[in-house]
Design goal:
Blueprint lengths: L22 H9 L23 E7 L4 H7 L4 H4 L4 E6 L6 H8 L5 H4 L5 E4 L4 E4 L4 E2 L7 H4 L4 H4 L5 H7 L4 E6 L6 H6 L5 E5 L2 H14 L5 E7 L1 H9 L4 H19 L4 H4 L2 E6 L5 E2 L5 E3 L4 H6 L5 E3 L2 E4 L6 H11 L4 E5 H6 L12 H4 L3 E5 L4 E3 L6 H4 L2 E2 L5 H4 E8 L8
Parallel strand pairs: 1-8, 1-9, 6-7, 6-8, 11-16
Antiparallel strand pairs: 2-18, 3-4, 4-5, 9-18, 10-17, 12-13, 13-15, 14-15
Length: 417
């Protein structure tokens, strides 16, 4: 891989055994089944839980960054003192949900599975698309891209983690909000999943998970329970708002009262629980917002509005203007933006090691613009979002990239004070 020079403030994804993308292979290693993908996490992130684990449960709290853990750890001493493993992992790049969850459900890096951002230009459909609802960015028509010919089963260019586990006799179960449990994105991620449970509240999530663990006591399984409210609150208020900490304390306290304490000894036996985030968040105040409309010379060099997201943009340059776009950022916005060719970013491994999905290079455009500090870069259609989104992610700062990885044995500490 080629090397590039990036600011010291950036945290690079650790695809070699220290990222959320390494979790599926870790579960497979703990359960003693083969896995084709990135390597497992480094041994200290899971071997201390023992060699007799039969069941792996991952509680994934969207936007649970290391910076947020530090804000609540004193209030949740009862939980953290029971952690057999307490590690700091990285998200993937870009540090955004669609990329990170796609890695969690495939065990591949973003460049390998091809899901490299929230907004992607899809040449075959000739549209800039929002990839949570599979709709054009100019209006929300959920699953419009599927109606336009996109094949969900072929979009992710990596086998499903659940498919691989199922082939070895280990069933996978998924828990997520009922509002998107059957969405196109969930169907992509859920290839091979035995059952997806639609949940309404965090208590409902734990109650359904507890019932599953009781009904399958003594049987191998892999389960992922996903909770998204921390991310929604962090976008609205910023990660350091009291409401965010209150929500995290609530969902982790319910873990104790609605899952761990009521579980029978048989259901606890051989069960490992991990708690992690997919990315973190940082405050992005309006004073740090940059607007394309304030840079008409730059706009003239671009073929279309940017893909990616406001913390990491994929720019499509007019023919022959790629180097001019990079030069403009370096000369005019060097303290706010790091710009490099998409080829350089891909070759340097920011999006993951080869082999890359054939569509990845096209989806990155010509120039990747990485925001420094708390800056965002917005096109005119996004100007109003500054008031509505006080926190964001997607970039390479520590607040966005560093996530906790906490490991527990449910059968080792059954009693709580």
């Amino acid at each position: 891989m080629n090397t590039i020079t990036l600011p010291d403030e950036f945290v690079l994804p650790a695809y070699d055994g220290g990222s959320i993308a390494n979790v599926p292979a870790t579960a497979a290693a703990m359960l003693g089944v083969p896995f084709d993908g990135l390597s497992p996490l480094r041994g200290e992130a899971w071997r201390p839980l023992g060699s007799d684990v039969q069941r792996v449960v991952v509680l994934l709290v969207d936007a649970f960054g290391w910076n947020l853990l530090r804000r609540v750890e004193d209030d949740l001493e009862w939980l953290f003192e029971r952690a057999i493993v307490r590690q700091k992992l990285t998200s993937v790049f870009p540090s955004t949900t669609v990329a990170a969850l796609s890695s969690l459900w495939t065990g591949a890096a973003p460049a390998q599975h091809g899901f490299v951002g929230f907004r992607l230009f899809l040449p075959r459909q000739a549209v800039l698309s929002q990839m949570i609802h599979f709709t054009p960015v100019f209006a929300r028509f959920p699953d419009a891209l599927v109606e336009a010919g996109l094949e969900p089963g072929a979009f992710l260019r990596a086998p499903g983690a659940a498919e691989q586990l199922a082939a070895a006799g280990v069933p996978t179960y998924s828990f997520k909000s009922y509002t998107f449990a059957d969405s196109t994105l969930s169907q992509m991620h859920g290839r091979g999943v035995r059952k997806t449970f639609g949940i309404v509240t965090a208590a409902d999530m734990y109650a359904q998970l507890r019932r599953l663990l009781e009904e399958t006591a003594g049987q191998p399984l892999f389960a992922v329970a996903y909770w998204d409210a921390v991310d929604s609150l962090s976008h609205r208020y910023s990660f350091d708002h009291p409401s965010v900490a209150a929500e995290l304390r609530s969902v982790l306290t319910l873990l104790r009262t609605e899952l761990w304490q009521p579980l029978s000894p048989d259901a606890r036996a051989g069960t490992a629980l991990f708690i992690a985030g997919d990315h973190g968040q940082i405050p992005t105040p309006s004073s740090q917002a940059l607007y394309l409309a304030d840079h008409p010379e730059l706009e003239k060099m671009l073929l279309m509005r940017p893909a990616g997201e406001p913390r990491t943009l994929y720019l499509y340059a007019r023919q022959g203007r790629q180097e001019d776009v990079v030069y403009y950022f370096r000369e005019r916005l060097d303290d706010s933006v790091v710009a490099l060719s998409a080829t350089a970013a891909l070759d340097a491994g920011l999006f993951g090691p080869p082999p890359h999905a054939p569509e990845t290079a096209r989806r990155l455009g010509d120039v990747v613009a990485l925001m420094r500090g708390r800056h965002v870069l917005l096109d005119p259609a996004e100007a109003e979002s500054v008031r509505k989104m006080r926190g964001r992610h997607g970039g390479l700062t520590a607040g966005e990239m560093e996530i906790p990885w906490l490991g527990f044995r449910l059968d080792s500490t059954p009693h709580f004070r």
